[in-house]
Every structure is written in C-alpha cells, then in structure tokens.
Design a protein that fits this description.
- By secondary structure, the chain is an alpha+beta fold.
- 43% of the residues lie in helices and 29% in strands.
- Strands 1-2-3-4 form a 4-stranded antiparallel β-sheet, sandwiched between helices.
- A hairpin with a 3-residue loop joins strand 1 and strand 2.
- It is globular.
Length: 102
C-alpha cells in the first residue's frame, strides 16, 4: 500500500494493488473522523479521466453526506472499508508523512 496523492486536511488516495482507496477527513462541528472508501469502477475511470478534480468532488460529497453519523442516510455509509484496510492505510499515510518530513 502506498499513498499516491493527497489534499492536506481533506483526503489521501492510497493504492493497494489495482485498487484505489480514498481516506476522507470528515469534520462536523466538534466531531472529526476518517472515512475510508474503495473507489468503484466508475469512480476509478473518472479519476483516470479527470484526476484530482473528481477526488475533490467525491471527498466533498462523502463529507457532506456525514457517513460516520449514526442516523446518516449517506449512500457511502455501506461502502466503508475501514475494518478491512484501515490499519494498512494508516501505516501507509504515516510512512508518507514521514517521507515528506525527511
């Protein structure tokens, strides 16, 4: 796993083999959390076509749908892959940050 792009204070894009994972920083009032989503085929194709712009839009949509809020009806809520990949993604982000600081 490796961070291939990021937007400070917003999101990290992590590559895991052929898959792309988007780690979005969500913040609602005094509550902040990270939401991890695996890009589907359409999102991956859109990223290949449009680049970072589509990631900004997707991260914005995820953030504003509040998938981490218990009563949320976010369409992204069921796509959370944190349990499957969260620890590995966190390690990749920490390695990326360490490399940026070097």
């Amino acid at each position: 796993m490796q961070v291939i792009d990021h937007e400070p204070a917003s999101w990290f894009l992590v590559q895991h083999g052929p898959s792309l994972l988007l780690d979005v920083n969500c913040s609602h009032s005094f509550v902040s959390y990270s939401f991890l989503l695996q890009l589907n085929e359409a999102e991956t194709a859109l990223y290949a076509e449009r680049g970072r712009d589509c990631l900004h839009e997707l991260a914005h949509a995820i953030h504003h749908s509040a998938p981490g809020v218990a009563a949320s009806r976010s369409p992204y809520k069921a796509r959370n892959v944190d349990r499957e990949f969260g620890i590995q993604v966190l390690a990749a982000i920490q390695a990326h940050r360490a490399a940026q600081g070097a």
